[in-house]
Amino acid sequence: MDRAQKEKVVEELGQIFESSGVVVVAHYEGLTVAEMQDLRAQMRDVGGSVRVAKNRLAKIALEGKPCESIADFLSGMTVLAYSEDPVAAAKVVDKYAKDNDKLEILGGAMGETALDVAGVKAVAAMPSREELIASIVGCIGAPASNIAGAIGAPASNIASILSTIEDKAAA
């Protein structure tokens, strides 16, 4: 890799570190190509990405970034998983690490906050952006359906009362 290519990689990594909601660092030693492709596909499905880069270049890219503290995790065969959604990458990596012992979570960062292994697992346990939106919509929609039910209920009660009166009159 020549100097221009290295500078380009450092610039790309710098953009990743600045724009991502969460960055997870993990060791991937022993993962097969198929397993790595599976991890990449799962990350792609949630809008995230996986990047393998030289640790030295990643450390240079981290200088002056909010998540600079994750430089300590960059040793050995490391992979960076990241996403704009502050929960998505952590969820995918945590789930994948549970199913595959070869992927070991080292830590990560959420903005300026450094995360250890427990921190990444805690973030993974949080609801995703889509789950939160669905929950909020459900909360907003519930009172409206209750009001509609309350408005419609007296009419149905009157109808059942009238039906009962008709039945008694006919008998």
In words, what does this structure look like?
Strands 2-3-1-4-5 form a five-stranded antiparallel β-sheet. The chain contains six helices and five strands. It has 171 residues and is α+β, with helices and mostly antiparallel strands. The relative contact order is 0.14. The mean pLDDT is 84. The protein has helices spanning 3-19, 33-45, 55-62, 88-99, 117-125, 129-170; strands at 22-27, 48-51, 78-83, 104-110, 113-115. It is elongated, with a radius of gyration of 26 Å. The longest helix has 42 residues, at 129-170.
Q: Which characteristics define this entry?
A:
171 residues; 5-stranded antiparallel β-sheet; elongated; single chain; 5 strands; alpha+beta; 6 helices
Topology:
Elements lengths: L2 H17 L2 E6 L5 H13 L2 E4 L3 H8 L15 E6 L4 H12 L4 E7 L2 E3 L1 H9 L3 H42 L1
Antiparallel strand pairs: 1-3, 1-4, 2-3, 4-5
Helix pairs in contact: 1-3, 4-5
How much of the sequence lies in strands comes to 15-25%
Tell me roughly what share of residues is in helical segments: 55-70%
What structural class should be given to the helix and strand makeup?
alpha+beta
Oligomer: single chain
- Order of neighbouring strands in the sheet with most strands: 2-3-1-4-5
Order of helices and strands: HEHEHEHEEHH
Question: Runs with pLDDT <50, length 5+?
Answer: none
- Tell me the number of strands: 5
